[in-house]
Fold NSUN7 methyltransferase.
Amino acid sequence: EKRTMALIEKNGYHDSVYVNAAKIFQGIHTEKRKDGIWVRYGDDSPSPALTFKDEYSQRVSYELAFSALKYQDLLEEILLASCAYPCQSIPDELTSLLVVMLYDLQHRKFQAREIFDEEPPVAEVRKIEHYLYSFRTKLAAALARCRIGHDALSIEYILPETIRKQEQRASALPLCVWINTLKINLQDVFMDLKKKGFTRVESVSDFDRYMYCVDQHCHDVLFFPSSLKEELLSLDLFADCKLLLQ
């Protein structure tokens, strides 16, 4: 299941991921007026408890929610400029779902999601998905106008400079990985990584593309170059929870 999730991440997520991401976003967003219109997210009643299938679903749900939060102003601007919001057929309680799914849709360059049948469909997710996709041309045009207005090559450049610098620093940090010694021993991990083309070095200062090192104080902790995140998560070691991304 985790292998399948890793493969479909770039083509969208399961319905349950969007539902959980919307619940998380509902609790952390800031409600404000845009162009004289309140973008409303429903009442402040406690959201139902989050239910995750596995650690991978939990991770991507939080990533999607916080990505939407980071670009909340831009996403709301796109919705208003495209006239996709407000919409009488979409209640305020689904605005969070609308925003997180819009972030994912633009991240996929407004391409349709590939639907997988491992989970039952969620009616609200399919409704919002169909609605956004019907507006995809206007949404893409609104995004393009925003980028032109900010003289930005991509949406990352629309963020305040302080946030961009924080992200650049964070992206440069090595990935920290725990070895799950309940499932595999250290030597087998080293052998498996060697077969996959990874070279063990002494420290992060020696890093090149496919290299890793062992923490000097915790021998069940490994460090990898940050650029390898997606490739690492597709390895069997991660899919089988023998390695855990910190």
